[in-house]
Amino acid sequence: MPMIHLTLPAGVLSAQARGELSKTLPTTLLKWEGAPDNDFFRAQAWCRIEEVAGGGFGALGDDLPRFRVDVTVPEGALSDRRKAGLVGEVTENVLTAAGLGQEDALRVWVLINEQAEGTWGAAGAIVNFKELAAFAKAQRAEA
After folding, report:
1. CA 26, chain centre distance (Å)
2. Measuring CA to CA, which residue among 56, 88, 41, 44 is closest to residue 69?
3. Confidence grade of residue 38 (pLDDT, cut at 50, 70, 90)
4. DSSP helix/strand/coil, 113
5. Cα separation of 93 and 88, whole Å?
6. Angstrom distance (rounded) from CA 141 to CA 129
7. In 1-143, alpha helices (H)
8. What is the pLDDT of residues 60-108, one digit of tens each?
9. CA–CA separation, 65 vs 138, rounded Å?
């Protein structure tokens, strides 16, 4: 299932902004995956926001905050169009939460990691993307 992990310098986001992002980021990820908006799929979309102490996360040349968003999805879950949409919307989510504008977009990097079929497991068993996609399709049909 999808997982999203934001790494940023400590103190950049308010507690309220972190709380909002912890809901907004996985919701955005589920949207671009095309997963049904139901309790089961929401419970599988995990989000981790990790703040790194001062000086532990940045770039050469300036002290402006940087943001790294690691997204892990099953291989084949995102087409090129969906990847582009996800990257754009996640970047906007982070910029908004940090009170930054589009001119700061290069400070947000989104890395999409596709987990190969047969290497994703939960509840003591391998989770196959094809079975998960069929389940999602059936859930959407019921809604």
Report:
1. 5
2. 88
3. confident
4. strand
5. 9
6. 18
7. 15-33, 39-44, 80-98, 129-142
8. 878 889 999 999 998 888 999 999 999 999 999 999 999 999 999 999 9
9. 43
